[in-house]
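S1.2 Input.
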Amino acid sequence: MSALRFSILFLRVWVILACSVVLPREGFCQRWVTQEKMDKLEIFGEVQLNADVIQQQLNSVRAELKSRLQIDGSNATVQVVVFSSRNSYRSYIGQQIPEAANRRAIFYKNGELYQIYTFRHSDLLTDLRHEYTHALLHQSLPFVPLWIDEGLAEYFEEIPAARSGSSRLRAMRWKCRTGWKPGLSDLERIPDAASMDSDDYRNSWAWVHYLIHESDASRSQLTGYLAAISAGEAPGRFSEWVTQHDPPVLSRVGSYFRRFRFSLR
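S1.3 Output.
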């Protein structure tokens, strides 16, 4: 078989698989203006998308997760589906994943498929970075504690250059100046994402931020905990893990934000 005929056959097979797996309804494939397969990404859009920019942003998330926390995902493909409007998104998600209809974006593990659904809006890349973090975590780990899952997604949704000027970083700094600090045990007791409020997301982000940046010791506790989960261990709650390995890490979160000077390594 010639190289050209093989390439055409491969393309036809990929399109058929995309239409049958991601887009189950008859005629659904015709709605996609953008259809791109790029390394470990498949990108579908009801509107024209700059797939190169999306790939660049998501690759940067993957690279930073690996460099900071030794989380590298897997060889599994992540499918990114971008609808043209909130109404179009809700029309599809309302039938397939009803509980997500009021969200702007969602990561969804559909059997062996890792999928991100969203729609075109001004914060599209931020939401894609957030949901892609979830996808990589769930590719890498047999389970992910909720506050770590959401805290890391909140952290990595921001591009590195924007983090030092983050409004929530400034808010956390001033809040901790009163002697308050984000509670970890409360986060560890939250049963599911539907039970989280904005304060819980903020506090999850704060703990992740602190653990990554405060010191090599704090980061090693987070990476060690995630490595234990990856190895199939049952390390218990993170607070229990740290108590066994480096108890002072639990007490420094408030002082970390109080002395923060807006310069990230």
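S1.4 Remarks. The CA atoms of residues 211 and 218 lie 5 Å apart.
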